[in-house]
Amino acid sequence: MNIYIEGYGCTLNTADTKIIKNSLKLFKDFQIVDTVEDADIVVINTCVVRLETENRMISRIEYFRSLNKKIVVAGCMPKALREKVIDKADLLIMPREAHLSGEMIYRHFKDKGVSRPSNVNINEKLKYLKPEGLIMPLPISEGCVGKCTYCIVKVARGDLLSYDKDLLVKKAREYVDSGVKHILITAQDTACYGFDKGYTLPDLLKDIIFSVEGVYTMRIGMMHAKNVPEIIDDLLDCYRSDKIAKFLHLPLQSGDDKVLKDMKREYTVDEFIDIVKEFKRKVKDLNFNTDIIVGFPTESEENFENTLEVLKKIKPDYIHGAKYTPRRHTLAAKMKQIDTKIRKMRSKILDKLRRELSYENNKKYIGKTLKVLITEKGKGIAHNCKVVKFNWEDGLKVGNFIDVKITDAKTFGLFGEVLRISQ
After folding, report:
1. Where in the numbering of this chain does the MTTase N-terminal domain appear (predicted)?
2. Smallest Cα–Cα separation from 382: which of 396, 365, 397, 395?
């Protein structure tokens, strides 16, 4: 049977798509194909973080159905919105079952079995992550300890379940030994890693730094600000290592304490600012990214203005802005909603500010020399995950680390001249 795989969503979901693909490769009856036209079965690994994304997923599933394909829906949608897809799919696979995809699909379509696996051990998922290319995601946990009122991902991914620390160190070593140069440490919230096991994110990072030799960097994925204070001193100690990218993704979501309380974010604006200040003080060339939701049900015009003022104060390098959309099975969806026109207007205002701040931050790099990993011809990622474009010269190759002197800056990228190959 020919199988076509399509994946969407965050870095964590990208890892799951790779896991699904590798689990299918173990079955000689399955052949993975590159086009949907050649497929007997379509596997779509879904994302439902926003309403627009959900609609896109439904549209893709219905398109595959129109081609008379057998359809397997995996990922967050089957878990969070089962009622939306149960009649559109031949088989549903939950996020924590990704590594069992091959077995489940074989059983369903070949043996006509319908039983679901029980007592799933998520550590088994790591076995199905095989190093490929320069950049690889390394999921460190499933679920989170938060209870945000707007978040459907909590419904999909559940409570915190951390991967075993020693297994993660082993997997990182496997990556680096196979030529991976940039590891994306990913989770729904990396800051709460290990809270369920008695260790922490810095414990994991230190184990990798000291026991995995080689030239590589680790980008730490999104952290929830309510969990950072518990680990901040040890975490900043980790950032002193060349193996940790000088990158911080810390979602603010709102710059107003009342809205943060309504969102159940469990930190105040001042507490958030303190974390950012500490990182900026101790991490040179910090690339600080944040997320903002505009048009949350209880956000007044004043609340929104407060958010803009906070952003001007903390000056993120990049702002992921999103218009609030109600998600089924969440508390915020039951609140009185703000008019869509107001949400669009606020989103436009936010987008203008985010461009101004990104450009302002990027201009500061002109004249500086950055260490850059070449990811494709004439392009790479700096030691702080800034995107850098540069002149291509003989002797350079993808996978090299080079020193680039920045000569120009745009809103969302840097430009420079190669000085030397550093590694």
Report:
1. 1-110
2. 365
> According to the CATH classification, is domain 123-363 in 3.30.70.3270?
no
Between strands 287-294 and 247-249, the pairing is: parallel
Which CATH code fits 369-421? Answer: 2.40.50.140
Contact 326/51 with Cβ under 8 angstroms? yes
- 189: amino acid identity, one letter: D
pLDDT digits (tens, 9 = 90+) for 332-377: 999 999 999 999 999 999 999 999 999 999 999 999 999 999 999 9
Neighbours of 178 (CB within 10 A): 12
What value does the mean pLDDT take over residues 55-78? 96
Residue listed under structure tokens 């999104």:
222
pLDDT confidence of residue 42: 97
* Distance of alpha carbon 225 from the chain centroid: 16
Q: Are 73 and 61 in contact (CB under 8 A)?
A: yes
In the chain, list all ranges with CATH 2.40.50.140. 369-421
For 2-109, CATH gives 3.40.50.12160
Q: How many residues does the chain have?
A: 423
Nearest to 208 by CA among 254, 161, 163, 261: 163
- Give the residue range(s) of CATH 3.40.50.12160 domains in the chain: 2-109
Confirm if 369 and 406 have CB atoms less than 8 A apart. Answer: yes
Angle at 91 between CA 149 and CA 107, to 5 degrees: 135
Query: What pTM value is reported for the model?
Result: 0.94
SS3 420: strand
What letter would DSSP give residue 419? E
